[in-house]
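Please, structure for the following, as tokens.
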Amino acid sequence: MIVEQRDYHVITGKLSELVSLYETEGIELQERHLGNLLGAFATDIGALSTYTTLWGYENFAERETRRAKLLADDAWKAFLAKIQPLIHTQQNRILTPTPFSAIQ
């Protein structure tokens, strides 16, 4: 298994708007295509105005296939047009669970 961590650094004051858009539109679209949402978070301490999601995949090839289907969805493209003005920067990481991780 691999875990993709996606951090969206949001324009100051816009985090609640971004979270609301994901709650009402985005997560349903993502789950339809990506599947395994492990969690969605907003920072309280540290790099503020950050929205983070963790997505689980069997392997990198599955991730690529699922993300390609999401990116081809017209509803997702329309959603991106709504959220892109709210996002300052984005960082993605692929994480591999350790043998003793609760997530395998």
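The chain has a mean pLDDT of 96. Helices lie at 15-34, 60-72, 74-83.
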